[in-house]
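Demo today. Your pick:
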Amino acid sequence: MAAYQVVSEALTNTAKHAHASPAWALDELAAVASAGDVSGARAAAATLAPFWDSAVRARTLEERGRISGLFGKALRAANAVTDAAAAAMLLRPFRVENLTGAYVDSFGKIVSSYGQQWTAELLRTWFGGDQPAWAYGGGQERPQWVADWLPGLCAGLHAAHSAGTVAAQQLLDLAWEWTGKDIRTGLASSSPSYRDKKLSDLGEPLASVLTAAGAGMLGPALGSADTTRYHMAVAMTLRLSDEQTEALRRKAEAEHRSMQQVALAAIDAYVHQATPARRQSVPVTELMTVFQDLPPMSVEAFRADQDRYADAEAYFDAYERIHEPEDGE
């Protein structure tokens, strides 16, 4: 049998086994590459491409815990094949929720190997791209992942790898984009109860995004646009005192509106009112120039005028007291 036929049959058998056990396939790829046969590992990876997405994403809800381990194997295999296209193919089926603190080092190595553009495309795929949340299954787990892992991941990437700062910024940008989209979805709801719950549930994720953005770890990478977005988001994290919250609740009940609507209306009314002109100090020399044509004032005459005004006021007050009606009249 020709050598190419042996190789072809071996790869076909590998593909069949890999379809049933993605974890086995990833271990094999890493082992082959580690043994020095990197080209063989790449060839084997190519046989996985037609079914790899469905094989990984077919994991049931009961197997979600094992997907975390599968993700670690995929990171090792993607690093071992040293090929950007093959690595992207192996990692594409996963979601950003699989990326936790345990994988900072592995992911950082891959970021350093394959570059910024490759990382940006992979992260956007993990975030679901332009798909709605229900299409990629991130609707329920995404808020908790952002709340639990985002600041630590950004800090770890920034500290451990030279290319990690850019990757952390990309991660932060995508998390903010997702958070903003969910906030707009909540605000657009016609149901006050759904809107209030949606925005309340986003409190912790939004705080984590702001923590990652404001901790200083990404300071040099944040541009003016990011700073603007940061301050826009801060407006949504205002904390009210108990008295203010209760007053807002009563107002909302009286007007048959949600607390969110009442608060937004109050903010709109305030920010759109005319801003009064601020007083400015004027140097004495300018005042002297403006009033230099006025005749000189006599201090004695000025004091005499003030005395007359004071006497007139006192006389009027005395007159009023004398002529006040008695009680009962």
